Amino acid sequence: MPGPTERRYVILAEGWFADRHAKTSHGLLAYGRDEVVAVIDSTLAERTALEVMSGLRRDAPIVGTLREALRYSPTSILVGLAPAGGRLPEEWMETLREAAGAGLEIVSGLHQRLGSELPEANVWDVREPPEGLPLFSGEGFAVEPKVALTVGTNSAIGKMTAALEVELAARERGVAAEFVATGQTGIVIAGWGTSIDAVVSDFAAGAAEKLVLQAARAKPSPALILVEGQGSLAHPAYSGVTTALLHGSCPDCLILCADASDEEVFTGVPRPDVAHIARLYEEVAALVKPAPVVAVSVNTKGLDESAAKKLLESITTETGLPAADPVRYPATPILDAIIRSPKTRATGH
What we know:
By secondary structure, the protein is α/β, with parallel strands linked by helices. It is built from 12 helices and 12 strands. Strands 3-2-1-4-5-6 form a 6-stranded parallel β-sheet, with helices on both faces.
């Protein structure tokens, strides 16, 4: 596991900071281990991050230009949005060129690789997978810490958030825990990881296994490894990366992530029943290594207090599992369920 690199971030989110699609910006402010010294969004200038997004854990001034942001002595500039179509507008590219000229590292989680487009800059393309990734080897079966993986009824449902909230709860209790980042926002937050969706498919399970092995070697030695899930078995576009993580990370248990929505997962693909997909995840995992679903993390955003509690109670009744919204309420029911669950052995061992 690589050592920490201390960064002082300015976030580039021009015109988009208050939008839910700026989740990398929001994730860094809510959970990041590096300092955020400013946000660039001229439409919100002279306000602060917490004034605009009250649910974030940390504050930062919002400024209108890079020149203003440089007064706060940043070391890095984060591209805080993945735009529709996958390419940054030219005005954003010009800002990044100016930032490179000022000596800032450019950090980007886009599929668009900025390293090749800004050859004069120091660029961390977060989605660029490391070289020499192995095939799955089975070493993950012997990992000593307990491994928990977040899975979902759909994509973009809070798997990263659930893992990070449980990590925080574990650390507050004195349980040494490591978060394993498998997507661009998680990698920016943690400062390390591999974007599994950018790995050649044959090596995706091996990449997941390697991440868990790295986390197991962290100091102090962790008792718990929390792997960020991706996609969903129910989503035809992303089920491949979901399965690679489900087998490659060799989890001992699963946290199922759900929400209040009944919208289709994909056109013509209905949202799965929570209890049904929980069983499916267990069955697919057990082909390699048993991993029971031990709790349900529920995103109740948009519901009032009464409706949120009613939803949690109904999911517990339906599944027989503890259900909690770890953002709205304590994550302890999920953490307790993970701690109670035993280590498991690979199928056939």
